[in-house]
Amino acid sequence: MTKAFIGIDAGTTGCTVMIFDEAGRALGHGYKEYPCSSPHPGWSEQDLGAVWNGICDASRQAVAEANLPDEAYESVGLSSQRGTVCLLDDRKRPLAPSIVWNDARATENAEEFARHISPEEHHDHTGMQLSPLWTASKIAWLRDRQPELFNEIAWFANGQEYFLHMLGAEKWETDPASLTLNGMMEISKLDWSDRILDLCGITRDRLPPVGIPTGFVGTVSKEASEATGIPAGVKLCRGAGDQQCAAVGAGVIKQGLAEFTVGTAAVMVAHLDSLDRIQGKNLWWGGHGVPHHWNIEGAAFALGACLKWWRDTLGSDEINLGRDSGTSPFAVMVDEAGRAKPGAGGLLFHSFLTSQVTPYYDAAARGGFLGLGLHHSRQDMLRALLEGCANEMRMVVDAFDSDIAGGISELRLTGGGTKSPGFVQIMSDIFQRPVHVTWERECTVLGAAILGAVGAGAFADVDEAVGAMVHIERDFEPNNNLAGLYDDQHQVYRGFYEAMANGGAYKKHAVFSEKHF
Fold first, then answer.
1. In angstroms, what is the C-alpha Rg of the chain?
2. Is the residue at 495 inside a domain?
3. Where do the Carbohydrate kinase FGGY C-terminal domain residues begin and end (predicted)?
4. Please, which of 132, 376, 442, 469 could form a disulfide with 24 given CB 3.0 to 4.6 Å?
């Protein structure tokens, strides 16, 4: 009989649930969107009840599509948002909406932290750059700005442990792979940092203890079974944070391996056997989904969002062509870009529509077309859009090669942005290195399912499970004839950014925008 493993990815904008067999083949799929709210500028909150309902709805869809007997189900593994803090009472009930990872309310608290720990020391201690985006600053903000709520909170939890609790978990623990964007972990010990907790104004008794990914936590309760359609008694196991799950789902479990998830944002993750491998500070470090190991990360926050922006604002032609041909507007965009010459006739596109993350961490940076001339066509603009996204990714890839002793020996690509071979080829050409696309693009839910399968005892360890369930679909080799062109293009691309950043143009523009808009 088929053995079935459920992966749940409770993301920021929606929940994906997939069911896989022992070979990693998808048997059922479900998805449900839910919103975030922004009650004040810069705030981002989420109703935990809406996320739970999304998990239930997506689970029912996946179970119905798989149409398997109850006894086929072996385990559930969960992937959750990192850096989103759940504010719970002593019975683990929400007291207020969760504060989402991209909430920027705590700027002053991060500045206060910097008076007690330098940014360099903070990075060495926690693995993270000092930032108001991490959970630590937001807990301190609650202490200072909403003391009544702060004092009522019994548990500052992550989605990982809260939603497992809702599914029926009896053990109340978190894991290092879910704590990366909390900024509250002592990275060398993969455990809470008492020093950072003191800056937040809390002690360990208000936080779940730190276990390991794959940890068995209980079984699906009768109530959760009725809500989700998942049979009661199925084993529940911790997965990891979303990007660590994506890395496991792409098979990135050995030193030298890395994966780049190309979605709305693009996040690159590499496996680390030891922190001694780190030789730079362009990236951030955390616990991996492989127990007792680390990972290292970098990101471009608006990659897929750039393509969506074109579709929604300038893409009526692509929408109409896609409708007529029965394909997606994004596929049409890539096909049109393929009709332009490499280099887009000298046109460049900066893809920093929300900020530049790795390696400059410049919140004021914004995107734009550069070098636009009367001779440029719509196809050139689309080509520049794709090449610009790939050039920002190259900055991240280069940071990994410089920051890890030995660099990256193999790069795998996952996510919706890899569905078009033309776009993947542009990435390979601009990186000037081979890339490998995984068979299952939804690597986050696959990784969660793998960690759940290991925790339930279906596989001896993560290595065995990955060997059985992760497969490469296609390899792409760079066009060496384009190496000179793209090296020159990248230097100009990066040079434009540095000239504007170092000259203060981005900051002046930010002040102008805030003043007038």
1. 22
2. no
3. 261-455
4. 469
